[in-house]
Every structure is written in structure tokens, then in C-alpha cells.
Design brief:
A hairpin with a 2-residue loop joins β15 and β16. The longest helix has 25 residues. The protein contains 6 helices and 17 strands. Among the domains are: 61 residues, no CATH class; 65 residues, no CATH class; 73 residues, no CATH class. The protein is an alpha+beta fold.
Length: 315
């Protein structure tokens, strides 16, 4: 240690010289083995880039798809870059076509399908194809509102407005044994004296039965309330005439309401009477029966297909 302190400079020079000698030996050995290492690298086979046969079709298909990327598609609304209509709903809050029925009962999708102006308040009463039927009529009839040749039936616009009964025109006036006096409501027509089984002249009614009956009124007086039965020979409708009283006619009247092309028409039809509807007035209908809540009619060209007409909506 004393020598190192006395000869510090020499010791540093000797250490540096020794380090340089070791570096020289290492460089020499590395240079000597370089040829062998280089030759070994040159003999390494090139990498095999060939695609295995089993995966080749999948990779070819994937490559083709990358070269021609498909357009974005979606079965519904994605909401991305798609403008959406907004409205103010009945409650005063913002609404969309997806969460609000704008024109009940017609769905929003149906109005958009046919390109109808969904933002207009009167869209259901509009008639874009001019066939006389509103958009609401077309929706109810499952027809095309923009095609003039596609529309509901005209009979669908016919409703029963009211039902009226008429007084029977014949009156059972009196009887003598088996002879019955029949008066007519029309005073210009004479009294007829008939027997059971005979026809009433000028009508399609036949006398079918007589029943002698008596009753007591509120004053205690005995009153003759005998009954004379009549039958309509075509329809077999039965009418019972009480002596001295007017009866109700089975030939009741149907009062119809017909709305088409913005116009309203009312008319009355008796049982078995024919009528027609605009604009197809060549088609004739016949009233078969009428009740307070419905009427039964038939197209005379299709006598086996009966049509029921429901009541008109109340105002």
C-alpha cells in the first residue's frame, strides 16, 4: 500500500496498459470467429411465406372484402347521421315518431309508407288520389291511399241512420159471423168483406185466422178485442189486427246515411225496395230486413251474399 501511494502514477499507467491488452485480445478472438459465424448465417434457409392449403380460401375471401369494404347497413334506425323528426306532443313535450301516435288510430309507419304529410293536422281527412275516400277510409279498408283504383267498397260508406215503423194500412172494422169487414187507411178505397183464406184486394195479404176475444177497460166496460191474423204471401210476415185499432206494418223503413267524396246524402228505403249508390249507380241493392241496430241488404246481381249495414256514429 505504501508503494501504491508512492508510485500512484505508475500504477495507473500499468492498469490502463493491462486493460488495453485485454481489449486487444478480445477483438482478435472475435475477428478470428467472424468468418465462421457469417457462413452459418448465409446457410439459413429463407422463410416460407406460402399459405397453408386449408386456410387459403378464407384468407383470399378476407382480402377481397378488405379491397371492397361494404356499405354500412342496418335493419333499423341506428341514429348515426340520420335526421329524426321531432314534434310537440299533446302533453306539450317533445315527441318522435317512435314514441308518439300522431294521428290515432292510424300508425305513423303507415302514413310514412305512402309518403303522406304526417306533419299536417288534417292528413286523415285528405284524399290524395281523388277517389272519394279519405286516408282514414283507406287505412280502415286496407287499401292504397295514393292509388285511385285501390279503394274500399262504396257500400262501406253506407250507414243506418234510423229505423222507422209504419202504420199498417188495413183496419179490422167489424165482423158478422164468418164475414170480416176490412177498411183501408185510404178513405178513397172501399171496405172489403172477406172470409178466412181470402186475399185482401190490392195487397199481398191473406186472412189466415180469427180469434174472438173480449176485455174490460178501465171503466169496467166489456170491449171486443177480437183478433184477425193476416199473412204476406211472399215474405210470410204475420200481422195481427185487433178490432177497431191500427197495427204496425212489418214493412218498416230504413233511413240511410251515405257519405262519399265529401258529400252527405240521406234517403229512406222500404223493405224489398231497390236503391243505388253514387258513383256506381248501375249496381242495384235491395233492402231485405231492417232492425233498430242494423239493416240487411243484398246486391241483386249477387242474391246469396247478404250485407249488413251498421248504425251511423252518433254526432
Amino acid at each position: 500500500m505504501d508503494w501504491l501511494r508512492a508510485n500512484y502514477d505508475r500504477a495507473a499507467v500499468l492498469a490502463a496498459a493491462l486493460f488495453l491488452i485485454l481489449c486487444s485480445v478480445f477483438i482478435y478472438m472475435s475477428a478470428a470467429s467472424f468468418d465462421a459465424q457469417f457462413e452459418a448465417l448465409q446457410n439459413v434457409p429463407p422463410p416460407n411465406h406460402k399459405i397453408p392449403a386449408g386456410k387459403a380460401p378464407d384468407i383470399v375471401e378476407a382480402t377481397a372484402q378488405l379491397e371492397k369494404p361494404p356499405q354500412w347497413t342496418s335493419s333499423g334506425r341506428s341514429g348515426l347521421f340520420v335526421p329524426e323528426k321531432h314534434f310537440i306532443g299533446p302533453d306539450g313535450q317533445p315527441a318522435t315518431l317512435q314514441n308518439t301516435l300522431l294521428h290515432p288510430p292510424v300508425p305513423n309507419d303507415w302514413l310514412e309508407e305512402f309518403g303522406l304529410p304526417i306533419t299536417e293536422a288534417d292528413v286523415l281527412t285528405q284524399d290524395p288520389d281523388g277517389d272519394g275516400f279519405t286516408n282514414l277510409d283507406e287505412w280502415e279498408g286496407h287499401t292504397n291511399p295514393t292509388g285511385k283504383d285501390s279503394h274500399p267498397t262504396y257500400i262501406s260508406k253506407l250507414k243506418l241512420r234510423s229505423f222507422a215503423e209504419e202504420a199498417f194500412p188495413l183496419v179490422f172494422a167489424s165482423s158478422v159471423e164468418d164475414t170480416f169487414a176490412i177498411n183501408n187507411a185510404d178513405p178513397s178505397k172501399p171496405t172489403q168483406f172477406l172470409h178466412v183464406g181470402e186475399m185482401v184486394a190490392g195487397t199481398k195479404y191473406k186472412l189466415t185466422n180469427y180469434t174472438e176475444k173480449y176485455d174490460t177497460d178501465k171503466y169496467g166496460t166489456t170491449v171486443d178485442v177480437s183478433e184477425l191474423s193476416l199473412e204476406q204471401i211472399d215474405t210470410h210476415d204475420q200481422v195481427t189486427l185487433v178490432k177497431g185499432k191500427r197495427a204496425t206494418s212489418p214493412e218498416s223503413v230504413a233511413n240511410f246515411l251515405y257519405r262519399w267524396s265529401g258529400a252527405e246524402q240521406t234517403f229512406s228505403v222500404k223493405k224489398d225496395q231497390e236503391f243505388s249508390l253514387r258513383p256506381n249507380e248501375e249496381i242495384k241493392y235491395k233492402l231485405l230486413d231492417v232492425q233498430p241496430d242494423k239493416a240487411t241488404i243484398v246486391d241483386i246481381q249477387k242474391p246469396n251474399e247478404k250485407l249488413e249495414i251498421g248504425p251511423a256514429p252518433r254526432p
